[in-house]
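Help needed: design a sequence for this.
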């Protein structure tokens, strides 16, 4: 049985609650990912910011540009989702995938001993599925031409 620990991204990029949405946007754009854990000094997960959060704040900031408000300069502590679904590194991949499907979420932060140790995302599951399909194609006998 494959477990989350086998496929998770270890030591994901993180920011602190004091960083801003602009910081999150810069990091997410440079590294090309959509989910950013927010951790405290002890590496405990305190929230999660998504690409959708950043895009929403950018749109809101554009609307408020005339009066000087800019949500992109707001600390992540104000935007980070706090009611998170997490997973243990020893959980089965199937259980993690089902949790993500049932909850309609794009990632699961991986927690061990109350600390963030990784993240598994919908993109990871697409990669797993692609690998399994490739293996299946290689092992299936070729159909004869008629």
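Sure. Designed sequence:
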């Amino acid at each position: 049985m494959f477990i989350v620990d086998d496929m998770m991204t270890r030591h994901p990029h993180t920011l602190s609650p004091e960083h801003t949405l602009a910081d999150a946007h810069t990091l997410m754009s440079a590294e090309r990912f959509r989910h950013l854990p927010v951790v405290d000094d002890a590496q405990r997960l305190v929230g999660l910011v998504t690409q959708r959060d950043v895009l929403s704040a950018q749109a809101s900031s554009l609307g408020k540009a005339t009066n000087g408000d800019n949500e992109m300069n707001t600390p992540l502590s104000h935007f980070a989702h706090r009611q998170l679904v997490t997973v243990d590194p020893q959980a089965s991949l199937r259980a993690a995938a089902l949790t993500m499907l049932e909850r309609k979420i794009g990632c699961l932060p991986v927690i061990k001993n109350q600390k963030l140790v990784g993240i598994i995302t919908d993109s990871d599951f697409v990669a797993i599925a692609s690998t399994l399909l490739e293996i299946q194609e290689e092992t299936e006998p070729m159909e004869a031409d008629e």
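Residues 1 and 107 are 20 Å apart (CA to CA).
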